[in-house]
Design a protein that fits this description.
Blueprint lengths: L2 H11 L3 E8 L2 E8 L7 H11 L1 H6 L4 E7 L1 H12 L1
Parallel strand pairs: 2-3
Antiparallel strand pairs: 1-2
Length: 84
């Protein structure tokens, strides 16, 4: 799979969320930004993203996935702190 494939899958399965994907083969890093994560625990956020990719994980098309999730406000703060 390619990062664009993973991004397309996530965009089709989780609404109103922005995805940044890095990686290759079956090993990817997913950064997801969206209001959908507001009020959810870290575990629930990851479960949401893993659930969207469950078929690909079960088939072995995706093997290792690292997930980082942010609300838009958290993402803005994170990107601002990197630029400072």
């Amino acid at each position: 799979m390619h990062p664009s494939d993973v991004k397309a899958l996530l965009e089709s399965r989780i609404d109103n969320c922005e995805f940044h994907i890095q990686g290759e083969g079956c090993d990817f890093q997913v950064t997801a930004v969206g209001d959908v994560f507001d009020g959810l625990s870290r575990v629930k956020r990851q479960q949401l993203v893993y659930g969207a990719l469950s078929d690909e994980i079960a088939s072995g098309a995706l093997h290792a996935i690292t997930i980082r999730t942010y609300t838009p406000q958290q993402w803005q703060a994170a990107t601002e702190s990197k630029g400072a």
